[in-house]
Every structure is written in structure tokens, then in C-alpha cells.
Automatic annotation (TrEMBL):
<dbReference type="InterPro" id="IPR001451">
    <property type="entry name" value="Hexapep"/>
</dbReference>
<protein>
    <recommendedName>
        <fullName>Phenylacetic acid degradation protein PaaY</fullName>
    </recommendedName>
</protein>
<dbReference type="InterPro" id="IPR050484">
    <property type="entry name" value="Transf_Hexapept/Carb_Anhydrase"/>
</dbReference>
<dbReference type="InterPro" id="IPR011004">
    <property type="entry name" value="Trimer_LpxA-like_sf"/>
</dbReference>
<dbReference type="Pfam" id="PF00132">
    <property type="entry name" value="Hexapep"/>
</dbReference>
Length: 198
């Protein structure tokens, strides 16, 4: 993975975390155990720090950054959807940031809260725990129901499992061409036929 030190400060990634080889980590980044950092995510801690908690996930094309002396935090089991931008904010435990959302400086997203896709949470906004917020600028819509929090937790569990799958089986390969695919399918069908007749 592209990892860079700046001013002598190097990223730290727990050996039980997964960081995709195309993600970029710069400077004061700490990624805890069980976390997942997706393809093309950029965690750029050349000004402030970045902390990714236990079993949190940061999905494809996300950007995380902050002003000097800030620390951008994704707490344990935080769930950052595809192409979201976090800047100098705090995402609470088991909270979810929807795809393409922007969370600005000094925001606090409470535990179990959900920020809907394509939302902008303006600077210094606090979204309470167990709340649903939507829009640009984001507004608190209502309190989440227990089944919605369970749905979010189940989605995060899939990323926790994906971390393990990636650590154990993800490998760069050359794609099959159509002849390889036909041969592979024929071999598989022959294998099935052999085992059905036994």
C-alpha cells in the first residue's frame, strides 16, 4: 500500500486491519485491529491526525483530512460509506456516514447515528446519538428505531467479515480471458458430473 511518512511521522496499521493496496496513508494515521480501508481511500494526516477505530470501515474513494492540530476520528465500528469526505470531525461508535456525504470541521456524529447519503453536515454541528440526519445542510429528522440501528450494525458486520476475507484471500491476479473462462467452466461441469455419478 502507498504509505508515506512526513516530518518523520509514519502511519501505524494494526496487523489485523486490512488496508487495500491502492489506498494512500500519509503521516499521523492510526488504523486499529479489524478495521477495513477500501480501494482508493485517502487518509492524509499531514496537518492533523487521523484515528480509525476497532472494526471501523472506510470505504472506496473516501477522503479523510483535517486542519493543523485537529484529530479526525472514526470510533469503533464506525461505517464510512463510499466517497464520503471527513474533515476534522468525530464519528461516534457504530455511527454511519452515507455515500458521498461531507462531514466538516468540529462536527460530532453521535453513537449509532446515521447521516444519509449525499448529506453535508456543516462545521460544528452535533448530531445526537441514535439520530437520523439528512440533507444539505443536514437536519436531524428523527430518532432511529431499534431495527434501523440493528440494520446498520448488521451492515458493519459484513465489513468486519470482509476484513477477514481480504486478509486471508485477496490477491492480485490477471483476469481470465474468454477461452480460460470456457475451459474453467468445462472443468467445473466435468467435476460436478463426476461427483454426481459417484
Amino acid at each position: 500500500m502507498p504509505c508515506y511518512a512526513i516530518d518523520g511521522v509514519m502511519p501505524v496499521v494494526h496487523r489485523q486491519a486490512f488496508v487495500h493496496p491502492t489506498a494512500v496513508l500519509i503521516g499521523d494515521v492510526v488504523v486499529d485491529a479489524g478495521a477495513y480501508i477500501g480501494p482508493l481511500a485517502v487518509l492524509r494526516a499531514d496537518f492533523g491526525g487521523i484515528r480509525i477505530g476497532y472494526q471501523a470501515n472506510v470505504q472506496d474513494n473516501c477522503v479523510i483530512h483535517g486542519f493543523p492540530q485537529s484529530v479526525t476520528v472514526v470510533e469503533d465500528m464506525g461505517h464510512i460509506g463510499h466517497a464520503a469526505i471527513l474533515h476534522g470531525c468525530k464519528v461516534g461508535k457504530n455511527a454511519m456516514i452515507g455515500m458521498n456525504s461531507v462531514i466538516l470541521d468540529d462536527c460530532e456524529i453521535g453513537e449509532n447515528a446515521i447521516v444519509g447519503a449525499n448529506s453535508t453536515v456543516t462545521a460544528k454541528t452535533k448530531i445526537p446519538a441514535n439520530s437520523l440526519a439528512l440533507g444539505s445542510p443536514a437536519k436531524i429528522i428523527r430518532e432511529l428505531r431499534a431495527e434501523e440501528i440493528a440494520w446498520k450494525t448488521q451492515g458493519t458486520q459484513q465489513y468486519i467479515e470482509l476484513t477477514q476475507r481480504c486478509l486471508h484471500s485477496l490477491q492480485e491476479v490477471k483476469p481470465l480471458n474468454e477461452q480460460d473462462l470456457l475451459l474453467s467452466r468445462k472443468t467445473y461441469l466435468d467435476f460436478q458430473a463426476d461427483h454426481q455419478t459417484k
